């Protein structure tokens, strides 16, 4: 398939080369036994020395363009066969272009306009992560914005499969899933950015990240809709393949909650036990996790396998990357059920496809 980037060719009048920046920036050199780096990539002010054979193996973009018919004959310099530099568009997008083909400097600073929208260090780190994936080197992801930047770059350079194949190790222990606090309100990057991360996970076809994001989105759906109606949150921009999956999981969550509630009400009527003071319930059934959690704790002494089964089912925690130590009904998940699930066969991509 042709690279996605092929349709994003930059018009010379609308783009400008980013200058070399302050002198003395040490290159980041990727080593491969028996090979000498033959490609220099200048990502903004950061040079990378890499190997064309590795780029071609894992990126359809470089496979097509490194030796394209319009490439100049001979090496790009005395030290490197290929040299690429950063080109920034007026709209804030950036990419790598062969140094001998790149447009001349613009009289105004496109880089400054770009930095107003996206932080250059984040882009450099995301690009380094992609190269690390290609070289099977360990890398870390510090936050959700880095994850999204990495996905966007991998999509542009047609390197989604190699990023997907190496991502799990980077997600384990990532600060994206640790507890933070803002104005005394606990949160994680993951739950704040779940819809965007779900879309990224779908592009990457990464089941672990997809499931984690999926659980978060379903658990917040009523809140997302309410805040959207109050103009406090932008629309939930998810593709047509994701919306029915989320809707079906939300319906199953409602069914699970109603079943547990019905079993509980039957036991209250027929069994001689009393409940202590309870939390107020919400008119949104999917926001009553704290109430169910308190009831389960009060009924822990009651020997009723059927009731226990349904209470455990609705309070099941399907998060596997979360590092907060909390479950449904607790702290930042006080109003959130985390039991949504999706089977492998329902993942919105073809598992047999190896290049996308």
TrEMBL record:
<protein>
    <recommendedName>
        <fullName>BTB domain-containing protein</fullName>
    </recommendedName>
</protein>
<keyword id="KW-0472">Membrane</keyword>
<feature type="domain" description="BTB">
    <location>
        <begin position="37"/>
        <end position="143"/>
    </location>
</feature>
<dbReference type="Pfam" id="PF00651">
    <property type="entry name" value="BTB"/>
</dbReference>
<feature type="transmembrane region" description="Helical">
    <location>
        <begin position="156"/>
        <end position="177"/>
    </location>
</feature>
<dbReference type="InterPro" id="IPR000210">
    <property type="entry name" value="BTB/POZ_dom"/>
</dbReference>
<feature type="compositionally biased region" description="Basic residues">
    <location>
        <begin position="1"/>
        <end position="12"/>
    </location>
</feature>
<keyword id="KW-0812">Transmembrane</keyword>
<dbReference type="InterPro" id="IPR011333">
    <property type="entry name" value="SKP1/BTB/POZ_sf"/>
</dbReference>
<feature type="region of interest" description="Disordered">
    <location>
        <begin position="1"/>
        <end position="21"/>
    </location>
</feature>
<keyword id="KW-1133">Transmembrane helix</keyword>
């Amino acid at each position: 398939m042709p690279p996605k980037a092929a349709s994003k060719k930059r018009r010379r009048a609308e783009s400008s080369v980013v200058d070399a920046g302050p002198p003395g920036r040490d290159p980041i050199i990727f080593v491969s036994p028996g090979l000498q780096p033959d490609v220099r990539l200048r990502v903004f002010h950061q040079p990378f020395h890499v190997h064309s054979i590795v780029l071609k193996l894992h990126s359809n973009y470089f496979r097509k363009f490194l030796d394209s018919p319009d490439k100049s004959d001979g090496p790009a310099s005395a030290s490197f066969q290929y040299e690429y530099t950063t080109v920034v568009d007026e709209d804030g997008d950036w990419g790598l272009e062969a140094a001998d083909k790149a447009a001349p400097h613009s009289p105004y600073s496109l880089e400054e306009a770009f930095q107003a929208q996206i932080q250059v260090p984040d882009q450099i780190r995301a690009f380094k992560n992609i190269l690390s994936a290609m070289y099977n080197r360990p890398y870390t992801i510090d936050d959700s914005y880095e994850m999204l930047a990495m996905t966007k770059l991998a999509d542009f350079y047609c390197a989604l499969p190699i990023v997907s194949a190496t991502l799990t190790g980077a997600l384990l222990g990532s600060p994206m899933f640790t507890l933070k606090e803002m104005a005394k309100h606990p949160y994680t990057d993951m739950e704040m950015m779940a819809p965007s991360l779900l879309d990224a996970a779908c592009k990457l076809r990464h089941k672990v990240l997809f499931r984690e994001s999926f659980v978060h989105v379903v658990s917040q759906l009523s809140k997302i809709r309410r805040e959207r109606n109050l103009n406090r949150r932008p629309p939930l921009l998810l593709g047509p393949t994701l919306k029915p999956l989320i809707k079906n999981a939300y319906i199953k969550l409602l069914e699970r909650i109603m079943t547990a509630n019905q079993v509980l009400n039957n036991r209250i009527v027929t069994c001689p036990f009393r409940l202590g003071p309870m939390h107020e319930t919400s008119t949104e059934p999917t926001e009553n996790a704290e109430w169910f959690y308190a009831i389960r704790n009060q009924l822990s002494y009651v020997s009723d396998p059927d009731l226990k089964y349904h209470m455990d089912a609705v309070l099941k925690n399907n998060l596997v990357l979360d590092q907060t130590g909390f479950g449904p009904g607790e702290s930042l998940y006080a109003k959130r059920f985390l039991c949504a699930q999706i089977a492998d066969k329902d993942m919105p991509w073809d598992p047999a496809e190896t290049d996308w």
